[in-house]
Amino acid sequence: MISDKAYIDPSAKLGKNVTVHPYAYIDANVEIGDNCEIKPYASILRGTRIGNNTRIFQGAIIGAEPQDFRWKGCDSYCYIGNNCVIREGVIINRGIEETGGTKVGDTTFVLAHTHIGHDCQLEGQSVIGNGVTFAGGVKVGKCVILSSNCVLHENSKIGDWVFVKGGCRINGNVPPYIIVAHNPVEYFGVNATVLRKKGGEYGITESMIDDIAKAYRHVYQSGTSVFNAMQRIEADLEDTPIRKNILDFIINNNFKIVAVPVEVEE
After folding, report:
1. pLDDT of 260 higher than 70
2. How many CA atoms lie within 13 Å of 127's alpha carbon, on the beta-carbon side?
3. Which of 84, 93, 257, 265 is the most exposed place for a label (fewest CB within 10 A)?
């Protein structure tokens, strides 16, 4: 069903069985996949690409112009995956360059009044709470929960299976599989409850959760530097995808992770 009270640019491409409610706005250079639903007063702006089976709720603005002086008006893009839910009042900016762009991966739930800045990369299978604010260039792994009113500063990185408690201000890198809370942000333990509940679908076992706990005891509770903690993890844990994910994240981010109470060795 496509309402005659909606505006759809003639050049926009809509897939099969798309529902567009009254007063929705769909701009030029937009592509929307099959079985999507665009609620009243939602705006899908130029450069947006939406996958299949995604729902965009009232007042959301997808593909808004980036809020960055580096953008000089070039064509840029915003990609929304399959099976996503974008709730009321969400704003998602497109990228600032012709390549790359802002990406929200499959099966991501973005709750009301969240703002996702230019060139953010969300891998998917995640829940983004009400009123979460992303600055530009933030990267979020898979199966992440960001509770309401979190603030993520520019170029922050969040690993897989992270749970960020409500109201946290993230101004660095949060390694995978942990919970962080408070302000300033503190390590709050391993995200074991969620891993036990949902991790089996991804091949995560109880012994893997034990390995995660061992790894983070070295990082956060041993009183040593992150560099030394990495060496202890390599010696203490078998070489598994879990261990590799933890080590790769921390090493690739130059040992700079949030909530570490000791100085990092150079």
Report:
1. no
2. 10
3. 265
